[in-house]
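Exercise 3.2. Students should predict the tertiary structure of the chain below and write it as structure tokens, then compare their answer with the key that follows.

Predict this chain's 3D structure.
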Amino acid sequence: MSASGFIGALKSTGYDKKINPSALQWMFHLESRRVKALLRWMCQNLSEDNVVTASEREDFEKIPEGKVLDDSELEEAFGLMESEAQDSIDSLGQDLKRLDSEIADEKSRLDSL
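Answer key:
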């Protein structure tokens, strides 16, 4: 983990400004575990996948005010999704048991022929 690695991570996001690594090296000498953890995470995880494109930002800005979900609304929506997913999993489990039973019945029928 170094200033050069941090700059490389920034460049991987599309950041194209020139930065002298020695201007950032001080951050990597801080004693704070939180800062070190953040810098480590950034060096390991920053990429173009973490960047909102201009088109995505424009699309977001087109969403009418009041239509963007806040924290509690997102939690509720995720809860509903989890509930629906669990219902689907349960239903698939029942289907699988039924199919296993049908296969066993067919094997028995074939064995008796």
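Discussion points: The chain has a mean pLDDT of 90. The two ends are 70 Å apart (CA to CA).
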